[in-house]
Specification:
The chain has 561 residues and is an alpha/beta fold. The protein folds into three domains: 137 residues, Nucleotidyltransferase, domain 5; 188 residues, ATPase, nucleotide binding domain (Nucleotidyltransferase, domain 5), CATH 3.30.420.40; 197 residues, DHBP synthase (Alpha-Beta Complex). The protein contains 19 helices and 21 strands. The strands form four sheets. It has a nine-stranded mixed beta sheet with strand order 16-17-18-15-19-14-13-20-21, sandwiched between helices. Strands 3-2-1-4-5 form a five-stranded mixed beta sheet. A hairpin with a 5-residue loop joins strand 9 and strand 10. The protein is globular, with a radius of gyration of 23 Å.
């Protein structure tokens, strides 16, 4: 029995394949097409998922989609009608109509491609987010909160989950959208909305909440304690591209041109937006925790890719346990759709998420063929321990190592299979990685990868750090050399590596720890120039030679420049 989840109606299209007992494969289309943010029908992703299962599309019983086209179109038409009554121009209508026609065309194409694969199931977008969080969590009762910019013309939902049932408590209707708010702040800062929100969260760590009072005016609360957008700040244009009105600049007391040239101002705007976002989400969570006397919280939706927000829920809410589905954005909605489709077939929907190594993997023979084709000179250590010794020796000499192992991670975070590694005890590691390899701003912090059994001794961190989905805090036992990488009172990014989930990376960390003050490595994603995470060996080799990386551990082989 196979069910397939497909996200195809916006950026970050993806496919997830599950059987009766496990998640077989999951991959975003962008990692295969090599075009960041790829939308549309994920033909390549579906093909690779089926290949992983040695199956054909005819073997799939249900294809689930986290999108209801008819309901979404009706809601969107109603939204634009009401906006037109308040004086909005025709561009939003035109944009909406064009989008509806594109979605209808996509659905016809999907039916043509996958007819014969079983039934199609079009599911509520936020129900799929909720399912992806609750069904992969360790809880049997929880409050579930989903928040994003917009899906099926909803910006979020609250569910009460018990057993395998998800009961809707309250939807959050667009444009009452915290996701829209954060993307508009991203645009105000001169960054790309729906792409650079991660930069805003990291920029915020260097700012002060000087503008929080002004940004609080963007929302008020309704009788259910949910945020309602003050439409005074909702600008014209198509709803997805609508910016803040000039009223926001008046309340902030700044000029638009000043934002681009003043880094400290930008950091303080980012910090203010982050603080307001955390206040609102904590207020919602606490209200419903008390109302339903519940100790566990599950979250999903693109807004929960923000690790500061997850840490705030873990440390400042009254919940004893908080779980975030780590691929929280649209891509992860396909996971929820696949699990709900499995439930429709009468099978258990719950599926604890043990790891995210769900993409394509490559055998030693396949890797060797690419190395030989590229005329590479490489070492073939006689065993794993020799490979780890080679890599740890290079790392201990303050060199940079790309680590390409096993199956590609699902999601944007590199968790030790498609990673660039460096020693945190190297004096110039920030300059070497940020300037000469990643070519990114210095405000981006690195993640500390550490064996899971060692992590509690060095860091105060939660179970969400298994997926790099939250933050930790340095403890007194942590080497003093790590303090220079902390921010906001000792906070750091932590990736706790479990032996069962990734035995090779776990062993490399311990091998490095034999030479270093602690078994801790800096881990950043193996990609360059804004490209998606590398997926296959040829992409790994190209990126290796296009950057200042010193060595490449690729499968059982080791390459040194």
């Amino acid at each position: 029995m196979l069910t397939l989840g497909i996200w195809a109606f916006g950026r970050d299209s993806s496919a997830v394949l599950v059987d009766e007992t496990s998640i077989i494969a999951a991959i975003e289309e962008e990692k295969l097409s090599r075009a960041s943010g790829t939308g549309g029908i994920p033909r390549l992703a579906v093909a690779r998922c089926l290949e992983q299962a040695n199956a054909k599309i005819e073997n799939v019983q249900i294809v689930g989609f986290p999108f209801r086209p008819g309901i979404s179109a009706v809601r969107e038409a109603g939204f634009h009608f009401h906006r037109s009554l308040s004086g909005a121009g025709p561009s939003a209508w035109i944009h909406s109509l064009g989008q509806t026609f594109r979605q209808a065309t996509q659905i016809r194409q999907i039916r043509g491609l996958y007819d014969g694969s079983g039934s199609f199931l079009f599911l509520d977008h936020h129900l799929c987010h909720a399912a992806s969080a609750y069904y992969t969590s360790p809880f049997d009762r929880a409050l579930v909160l989903t928040l994003d910019e917009r899906g099926d013309m909803r910006s979020g939902s609250l569910y009460l989950a018990e057993g395998e049932e998800l009961r809707l408590l309250h939807p959050l209707r667009f444009p009452n959208s915290l996701g829209w708010f954060f993307s508009r702040v991203t645009h105000l800062l001169g960054l790309r909305p729906r792409r650079d929100e991660h930069k805003v969260q990291w920029l915020s760590k260097d700012g002060h909440p000087d503008f929080a009072a002004a940004l609080r005016k963007v929302f008020r609360y309704n009788a259910n304690g949910l945020p309602v957008l003050n439409t005074r700040y909702l600008g014209g244009g198509a709803d997805e591209d609508a910016t803040f009105t000039e009223a926001i600049l008046g309340d902030l007391g700044i000029e638009r041109r000043a934002v681009a040239s003043d880094l400290q101002l930008r950091a303080s705007l980012a910090r203010s937006a982050r603080d307001v976002l955390e206040e609102i989400v904590l207020s919602i969570a606490e209200r419903y925790r008390k109302q339903y006397s519940i100790d566990s919280l599950c979250v999903a939706g693109g807004l929960f890719l923000n690790v500061f927000l997850i840490r705030a829920l873990e440390t400042r809410s009254g919940f004893q346990q908080v779980y975030v589905q780590p691929v929280a954005g649209n891509s992860g909605g396909a996971l929820g759709a696949a699990l709900l489709a499995r439930k429709r077939l009468g099978r258990p929907a719950c599926q604890p998420l043990k790891h995210l190594y769900l993409g394509p993997g490559f055998s030693s023979g396949e890797i060797k063929a690419v190395l030989d084709n590229c005329k590479m000179i490489y070492k073939y250590p006689p065993g794993d321990e020799q490979l780890f010794a080679e890599a740890s020796q290079v790392l201990s000499r303050d060199k940079i190592v790309a680590w390409f192992q096993g199956r590609t991670e699902f999601g944007h975070r590199a968790l030790g299979n498609r990673s660039i590694l460096a020693s945190p005890f190297s004096e110039y590691v920030i300059e070497n990685v940020n300037h000469y390899i990643k070519h990114r701003e210095d405000f981006h912090p690195f993640a500390f990868s550490v064996p899971a059994e060692v992590a509690p001794r060095l860091f105060d961190c939660s179970a969400n750090c298994r997926f790099m989905a939250s933050l930790g805090k340095l403890k007194s036992d942590a080497p003093r050399e790590l303090e220079r990488f902390s921010f906001e009172g000792g906070q750091v990014r932590v990736h706790a590596v479990e032996r069962e989930a990734n035995p090779r990376f776990w062993r490399l960390l311990h091998k490095f720890g034999e030479r270093a003050p602690a078994p801790v490595l800096f881990n950043t994603s193996f990609n360059l120039f804004g490209e998606p995470l590398v997926c296959d060996p040829r992409e790994a080799i190209r990126s290796f030679y296009c950057a200042g990386i010193d060595a490449l551990g690729i499968g059982d082989f080791f390459v040194i420049k």
